[in-house]
Amino acid sequence: CTHFQPKARLADGTVVGAEALVRWHHPEQGLLLPGRFIPMARDTDLIVAIGEWVLEDVCRHLAAWRDAGLPELTVAVNLAARHFREPRLPERLAALLAQYDLSAATVELELTESTLLDVGLETKTTIESLRETGIRLVIDDFGTGYSNLAYLKNLPISALKIDRSLIRDLEHDPNDRAIAAAVVALSHVMGLTVVAEGVETGHQRQILLEQGCEFIQGNLLSPPLPAEAFAEWVIGQRRKSG
Ligand code: C2E
Ligand code: MG
Ligand code: MG
Question: In this structure, are strands 15-22 and 2-9 parallel, antiparallel, or unpaired?
Answer without folding.
Answer: antiparallel
